[in-house]
Amino acid sequence: MVTKAKITGIGSYLPQRIISNDELSKTMDTSDEWIVQRSGIRMRHQAAEGEFTSDLGVQAAQKALQHAGLTIEQIDLIVVATTTPDLTFPATAALIQKKLGMTHGAAFDVQAVCSGFVYGLSVTSAMIESGQAKNALLIGAETMTRLLNWQDRTTAVLFGDGAGAIVMSQCEVTGRDQSHVLGSYLRSDGALSDILYVDGGPSTTGTTGHLIMEGREVYRHAVGNISDAIESLLASSGYQVADIDWFVPHQANRRIIEGVAKKIGLPPEKTVITVDKHANTSSASIPLALDLAVRDGRIKSGDLVMLEAMGGGLSWGSNLIRW
Ligand code: ACO
């Protein structure tokens, strides 16, 4: 028997306010047609004034706890993947810990931008496998709209706010067909840090800054890097593309998702796409998509699920899960 981590609960949250492409086209030189054709995005949600990343994370975490049938007293670790923290410090995970009324255990943030959830899942499962935690909350929560320059139509139309969370629990497995995290693959290349970044920070400008992206360059790297992350993880885990039941990618852009599926030879009907409903919510997008596919009955116990993401850093990676 080997100690592993499995996913025992999931939940997500989107703020109430919805901004359609048509609404955006009233205040900037864009159109529903352009946005849908280039990205697949139809709408995004925006956090209300006074609603912070930690609040979105708390909502998602409470639903995940309820789904797992656990109380906060049974959780001993909170990991939050975010690139839009409430404050420079303390960690948003600590603020969520406080809001959930948890007075024991540990809480910290992971910063890998859009790959945050994939990185967080790798770190959290490693901590559970090594015995440092028994039940953990992994939350991806973002208020990306607060990083946007609303005068820049090349980025403002692509992002939104939201949160998703999973509960991960320690388990003993005897075979790879039992529910657990089978493995993860993480990569980054800081030499490409200047094609997707935020032009501010506490140590440089003393301001938050705005998101800057060379869209074409990011696109150029995305399909190759992501395909490599999936194929490398399949190879090291002893599986093939045909074994994947569900492909749940980071929801940045429909064209990137379909390009990856085509490159690796995965049929479109095995791909979960939700980018149309909430745009790019960075580290929240994978658990948002996962939650939908679990709740509508597509992803079932025993399915082989592949997650992947690429984001600022550049950072990229994948996780393979027996659900
Ligand atoms: N509305 C209307 N026109 C626009 C808009 C807009 N919102 N934005 C740009 N344009 C114009 C440009 O000005 C340009 O006009 P021009 O030809 O007169 O100069 C024209 O549309 C084409 O612009 P491109 O940038 O070449 O458009 P492209 O087809 O490359 O699509 C996009 C842009 C969607 C950003 C694409 O490059 C892309 O998908 N990149 C990947 C980026 C991505 O998904 N990033 C998410 C972050 S990655 C991750 O998750 C971190």
Search tags:
323 residues; alpha/beta; Peroxisomal Thiolase, Chain A, domain 1; five-stranded mixed beta sheet; four-stranded mixed beta sheet; 33% helix; 27% strand; globular; binds acetyl coenzyme *A
How are the SSEs ordered, and which strands pair?
Elements: E1 2-13, E2 17-20, H1 21-27, H2 32-39, E3 43-46, H3 53-68, E4 77-81, H4 92-99, E5 106-110, H5 116-129, E6 135-143, H6 153-156, E7 161-173, E8 180-188, E9 196-198, E10 211-213, H7 215-237, E11 246-249, H8 254-264, H9 275-278, H10 285-295, E12 304-311, E13 315-322
Parallel strand pairs: 4-5, 4-6, 11-12
Antiparallel strand pairs: 1-7, 2-3, 6-7, 8-13, 9-10, 12-13
Helix pairs in contact: 3-4, 7-8
The protein binds acetyl coenzyme *A (ACO).
Task: Write a brief structural summary.
With 323 residues, the chain is an alpha/beta fold.
